[in-house]
Amino acid sequence: MDVTKLREKPFYLTETERDWVQSTLASLTTEEKAGQLFCVLGDANTPEGLIDLVQNYHVSGVLFRPNPQKEVKAKYDSLDQYAKVPLLKAANLEEGGAGVLSDGTYFGSELQVAAADDLTCTEAFAKTCALEGRSVGVNWTFSPVVDIDVNFRNPITNVRTFGSDPERVLANASTFVRTIQKYGVAASCKHYPGDGVDYRDQHLHPTYNDLSAEEWYATYGKIYQTLIDEGLMSVMVGHIVQPNVIRAYNPAAAEADLLPGSQSKELLTGVLRNQFGFNGVIITDATIMGGYTMTMPRREAIPHSIAAGCDMLCFGTDIREDISYILDAVADGRLSHQRLDEAVARVLALKATLRRDYPLPDIDPKAEQRRCADEAVTLVKDNQKLVPVTAERYPNIRLMTLGQDATYDGSLTELAANYLTGQGFQVERYDPMEDDLHGTRDLPGDRLTLILCNLPAASNQTTVRIKWCDKHALETPRFVHEEPYAFISFANPYHLQDIPRVPTFINAYTATAATVAAALSKLLGQSPFKGVSPVDPFCGLHDAHL
Fold first, then answer.
1. How far is CA 355 from CA 26, 184, 218, 299, 349, in A?
2. Which end of the chain is more exposed for a tag (fewer CB within 10 A), N or C?
3. pLDDT tens-digit profile of 262-303?
4. Backbone phi, then psi, for 360, in 5-degree steps?
5. What is the three-class DSSP state of 260?
6. CA nearest 505: which of 384, 419, 413, 390?
7. Nearest alpha-carbon partner for 193 in 129, 132, 133, 249
8. Are 128 and 174 in contact (CB under 8 A)?
9. pLDDT digit string (tens) for 72-82?
10. Are 320 and 279 in contact (CB under 8 A)?
């Protein structure tokens, strides 16, 4: 490509940096250029195998799953000596430094940050990601998620998004990107062309964003266009088909052309490059996903993504094999040398940008985590006027936990029980398997049943719904007219679809010690509820309001 274009947004390379990109590109063999197209999952390889990929196959980037800070830093430091070209050190900093450090700060989900309705919390979120990520050398984050949670049934977007309002998503995403890139970590917004419309999981097969082209450009398209205009350095492309935008760009598109974003020339070169003017790095989402592997033979798909407009490929079923598919395509002309050089030049430009001297943010992550939790916890409804709960009114609390008891920093049940006993309540741990069906005449009048729920969305999981116990579903709040119940969700904000008649419902969005303390302090009236729901927690259901 014309390296003078790299003087423009988002890299703004100096003459010295452009010379480095040009000379480095010229020094690479075709095999080395092919390796520069790949970011690998470090944990999927042995230490020796990873060194081989960096030293002999010249892979461009490495991502490690969360481990203790010292271990992650040692892993990256050990690889640096084998890299001919500086590595991109990637992480999924979607919830804070915990995205790469098992001893980092789990700041909160994006939905929690959005619920705080305070962009200074979003700024603190990004600073935490930058500070803790850079402590181990991370210079590239596969975040933020800028999908719109259009469909509450989507099993993936959920709390990973900034909500269902495109303007709120854009405001939070813009603040996050601007802040984290200021501190030397390139953002990669995902998952273009946009998840959250379908109710299925692109990890398992291709999914669809089937908004009309007009709706898409006014929502998802506006988000990407604005972030690109503001200097976004990279975009992660999902295995999501947008048939209406493809056909709007190319009216002659046949069924075979309706490919996921990670393989669509119309969506990549046509819309992202030509219409939106994006000059940064485009990387696919993980190519191990069913959404990528099911569209065409892998030997065709890997070079096809680069030819269509991607600059890098994320992960792989067999990296050495995938690199050979690139080389085969270059040899037989399916992938031109020009397109290969263009992709590698952008990758090198990103690396040149990240070699600059960036400041470190001045922030106390734990204090900001607590502040965000305090601002985010949302009282969705309190039809029984339960709040504030006092020990004089309800000295006994029957506590039950649905879903995962383990949180990032402790047992959900233990955290809640310790808080409540510290406030003078008697706490009973409820086990439905030790109970039986009973009537209502002898229900205690001084007991509150508090249900804690932690059922987070996850990849390869097609639903996020409450599963009650097999013994008559005894955890359900069946006697809502005879005794008080309160329900706190620490993950999925949409549980009212399964528990619509519970009279008091609270969303805390993230299962951490900070949100447990914040939610309980508000339930007890020790601090006010401040959160503003970024989604419709009633799921459009009339009876959920009752």
1. 19, 9, 36, 34, 10
2. C
3. 999 999 999 999 999 999 999 999 999 999 999 999 999 999
4. -100, 140
5. strand
6. 384
7. 249
8. no
9. 999 999 999 99
10. no
Give residues with Cβ within 8 angstroms of 419, minimum separation 6. 516, 517, 520
DSSP codes of every residue in 334-388: SS-HHHHHHHHHHHHHHHHHHTS--PPP---HHHHHHHHHHHH-EEEEETT--PS
Q: In this model, does residue 237 exceed pLDDT 70?
A: yes
Who's near 444: CB < 8 A, 6+ residues apart?
396, 483
The catalytic residue positions are 285
Average pLDDT over residues 19-32: 97
Of 57-66, 202-211, 458-467, minimum mean pLDDT range: 458-467
Chain centre distance of CA 101:
16
Give pLDDT, residue 1. 64
pLDDT in tens, 306-354: 999 999 999 999 999 999 999 999 999 999 999 999 999 999 999 999 9
Question: Are 174 and 119 a contacting pair, CB within 8 Å?
Answer: no
- Single-letter code of the amino acid located at 72: V
Pair of tokens at residue 152: 């509450």
For tokens 């900093």, what's the residue? 93
Q: How far apart are CA 38 and CA 312, in angstroms?
A: 6
pLDDT on residue 459: 85
